[in-house]
Structures are given as C-alpha cells and as structure tokens.
Amino acid sequence: MRTHTKNPMPPLPTLAECQSSLDQDLQTLAEHRSRWVQTSVAERIAILNEIKDALLPVAQAWAETASRHKGIPVGSPLEGEEWLSGPYTVMAYCNQMMPTLSQVQGKQHLSGLPLRELPNGQLAARVLPHSLWDHLLLSGVTLDVWMQPGVNRTNLAQHTAAIYDSASPQHKTGKVSLVLGAGNIAAIAPLDVFHKLFAENEVAMLKMNPVNDYLIEFLNAALKPLIDRGFVRIVRGGIDVGQYLCNHPLVETLHITGAGASHDAIVWGTGEQGAANKAANTPINTRQITSELGAVCPTIVVPGPWSAADIRFQAEQVATQKLHNSGFNCVACQVLVLPKDWDQKSAFVQALENVIGNAPPRGLYYPGAPERLAGFCTNNPTFKTVKRPGAQDLVMSTLDLGNAKARSTEVFAPALNLVEIGGQDAEAYLIAAIEMANSQLYGTLGANIVIHPQTIAQIGRQRFEEILADLRYGTIAINAWTGLGFLSAQSPWGAFPGHTLDDVQSGIGVVHNTMLFDKTERAVVEAPFRPFPRNLLSLSFTLLPRPPWFITNRKGAILGLLLVAFQHRPSLLKMPRIFWNALLG
Question: 20, 502, 17, 509: which is closest to 248 by C-alpha?
Fold first, then answer.
C-alpha cells in the first residue's frame, strides 16, 4: 500500500466537451448488457474475487485521499471512517455476495438461514451473524431482515433472487442503468452499481457526484474487472451532464442517492413547470427510478436503570450518530427523543455535550453546509451552540413540533434537535415516541433506539417487538446506529416500502441485500448495550469493545487498515492484532 498525494481534480467537463465520450460509453454498455445477463455465476464470483485483489493496492490511497478532502488531519483516528465506509464496505460486499452466488441455484443459500415468525405474523430472517467471522468481529450483534406481509417460510424462495430463475424476464434480457452517485460516503456509489449488476442484472453507467469525484481513480482501479468487460463505466460532470444522461435514449433505468429535490427535478422537472407536472401526475421522465434520499432521523432514548458508565458510553454512541462524517450522513441523528420525566435525562444530555465538545477536529467539507446551518437556526430560534475546538460548533435546539419546517427539513450538517416525550413508564413512553416519529418527522430511512436490557426484559421481548413493528423505518438500530446496517452488505438498505414518485420522502426500493431477498420491509440491527469487558460485570459474554466506527475510538485508523486487510483474506491469524487494537480503542 502506498501513501497518496492529493492531486486537485480538473474543472468539471461541460456537456459539449464530453458528449461524444458519454455516447460511446453508453453504446459500449448497451452492447454488453446481454452478455452480462449471460455471464455465469462462476464468472461473477471470479469477478468479485478480482475486484478484491484490484481494490487492496489502492485502499490506503483511497482512505487517505478522502480524509484530506474531508478535512481530517493526517494521523487522526477519524481516518478510520474513510477506511470503513469506503474500501472495507466494498470488500465486505464482495465477501457476502460470493457465497450467495455459489449457492443461488435452487436458492440453496437460504438453507440453514435462521427464520422465525414475529409476534405480528411476519417472517424474519437472521442474516447476521452468518459466519465464524461475524461471531468474532461483531460479537453480540444481530441483524434480522423482516419480510413484507405475505412472505412466509413456504414461499420465501419464490421471493428471493428471482433474476437468477431461468423463467425470469430479467434472466433473459439486460438493461442499461444510470447510477447517480452520492457525494458523502465513498462506498455508496460502487455498492449501488453492484446492486444493479448482481441483484437486477443491469449494466451500469456511474456518474460521480462532483463533491467526491476525486474517488474516480480508485474506483476505476478497483472496478477494472467490470470495466474491462464492458459492464461498467464511470464518468464525471455537472448538472448538465447528469441531465443529459438521465434523458439519454440508451439509459433504461435510474438510481439516485441524494436529495429529494434532485429526484423530483429528474422525474417532474424544475420550477413552476415541475410543480405543475407533479400536481398533474405527468412526469417528464418515465424511466423506472429507485432512490435513497435521506430523512429527519430520530434516536429514541428509553428510560432505565443506567449506570454512569452506561450514560457515558451511550453518549458516545449518540454523538457518533450525529458527528460521523461531520454530520453529512443521510441517517445522521437529527432528532434526539428524550423521556421527559427520566431522572437521568440531564446527566445524559450533559455527557452528550461533553463528548461532542471533545470530539476530534475535522472540516466542514460538504457544500451548502453554512447555509443549511443558518436555515436550521432560523427554523429553531431557541438554538444554542456546543463549542468544538478545531471544528464547526454543533447547533442544538429544542424541537417545536408545531413548526413544520423544523421537523421536516433534513439539515445535513452538525445540528441536533431535542424533543421530550411524556409517558407513565418505559413502554408507554416508547409507544408515544414511536407515534411521534411516524407522524411528525419527515422520511423513513433509519431510526435508533437506545434501551437498557433490563428495560427490554421488563417490557418483554415479544411485546417489545410488537411495539417495534409500529416504527415504520427501513432500518432500525437497537443500541447501535443504523449506519451499521449500511456497513452490513447482507442488510437491505433503503426507505420503508410504500413511498410514491409524488411523495418520495426517503426513496423507493433497496440496495445492498446480498441475500437477494425480493420483498423486504425493514432491517433490525441490535448490539450489546455495554462494551467488552465492562459487560462481563452484568453477565453478558459478548466480546465487542468500543466499536471502530465510534468517533471516540482512539484506534480507528489502524483498525480500518487491519479490517480491510482481513476482508481481503480472512484469517484467524489476523484476529489477535485486530482485537488488541479494538481493546485499546
């Protein structure tokens, strides 16, 4: 691995400058779409192995370059974020998809998968832990995929990996897709491309977001096995290039990760004419479009018998949910829901402010952040600031639920709303908090619940899941962050189903989902409430220390490097060094 010196990207090409090459790239993809569909499972597995080998030599340069562009100082443990949300996640996808493909014939990859019926009758599949490595690296973490109503044990195979059925239309003909990449998290764009290829049988043109198109040199290297075969092309450009591609006659489907306004501009147009088209339900672009568009995401803190150490650790958890990637995450916590009558509420808020104030410094890199923060302050005039030396101060305010703009605007910056909910006990409070999130907050991408295991036992696990079923979000994290669902390739990632083009909110469809389920409703990820070794005092025998994605992890950078090397070639011999640094973190 080599150290990379950042080279500034040249100015964005105009459409006139690159139109000919765009046409040629799309023509190449169109000529190869049928060949991709006919590519055998064995060759697809070989391609994924080739991608792993192509990615490893550029992984360090990728992580370091992204860190510099995001204002992370050299040597900061925050460099670990770029390792984990870039090369690690791409490598992990390859490792998860390969065993699925090796057994997809006859849906044998479902064999042995733990299934259970939920209290409401829906089917849930436990997709993590799924291997020895899951048990070791994510000890105590579970991830259940809830299927949509109507999917059961008997017909699950019929609703899984349909494109690999010989009778499927997608098994016979391919399509050319356009993927509009996100500008914040490095792995989003390549994983969206992978989903188009391996889950939808479509070749892909990836247009990078100008914010992070410095990644192109690394993605071209990592995805070379797909590019050389004519199945992927990667391009850069501004709005004019994006508009041209969205309306190109060779582009058959679209996928966007970004803002709802960008989605609506593609589907309906802009300005008054766009609003009129939307009102009349006359889209200007009728291609199939899937999307992931963010939300005003809540974290619900449930009252319970927390120790001082619990308060400190969970404050680190919530601070990470807010400040990971400097707050530029579609599932960043924006609304912290607190129990009004909890006697530890003030202590928790104070601990959270302390963690935020002492978080490692970094830059405010994403365009428009100052304007969005100013808008947040306008919408929340009771705001205060939490000082962060060397970084943008965090803006915090009490949420006025009567202010529609305050509860429906995704700020995408270091800002946090607090709202207090009453309730006679933990169960009543949780029900009220869930009702508030469902009815008052915009979007359905991700929600977090922080709850003491004794409180779950008091409510009852079955009753707890009955209550959880009412929380309509695509990913729910219990004592974890929904970002862990993003990092876990076997988890479907997207909004809760049901949004429409004219009310798209957090988007339509899912990505990732290496188990290839066709009708998922949500993913529920749960982690231990206490880290190792403190958890041993409460007779919890999981081995997960402070997670490497925490902004407070002192060994984040070295753990990122070690975990990427592990994903490239998993080995028990690599575990001691990983675990030792995890303990020191």
Answer: 20
Chain centroid, CA 496 distance in Å: 14
Phi, psi of 420 (to 5 degrees): -105, 135
Q: Within a 13 Å sphere around the CA of 323, how many CA atoms are in the beta-carbon half? A: 30
Residue range 42-47: mean pLDDT, rounded:
98
d(CA 582, CA 585): 5
Residue 570: other Cβ atoms inside 10 A: 16
Main-chain phi, psi angles of 187, to 5 degrees: -80, -15
The one-character DSSP state at 330 is: T
pLDDT in tens, 408-430: 999 999 999 999 999 779 999 99
207: phi then psi, degrees, rounded to nearest 5: -100, 115
Residue 229's Cα: distance from chain center in Å?
28
Annotate 208-241 with DSSP letters as a single string: PPGGGGGGHHHHHHHTHHHHHTTSEEEE---HHH
Distance CA 393, CA 384 (A): 10
Average pLDDT on 125-132 reads 96
Query: What six digits make up the tokens of 339?
Result: 């129990």
Residues 3-27: what's their mean pLDDT?
Answer: 83
- What is d(CA 473, CA 433) in angstroms, rounded to the nearest whole number? 14
Q: Where are the beta strands (DSSP E) in 241-382?
A: 253-257, 288-292, 297-301, 333-339
> Which tens digits make up the pLDDT trace of 344-396?
999 999 999 999 999 999 999 999 999 999 999 999 999 999 999 999 999 99
Q: What is the DSSP string of 511-529?
A: EE-TT-BSSEEEEEEE--S
Q: State the pLDDT confidence band at 8, using cuts at 50, 70 and 90.
A: low
Verdict on whether the full-model pTM lies above 0.85: yes
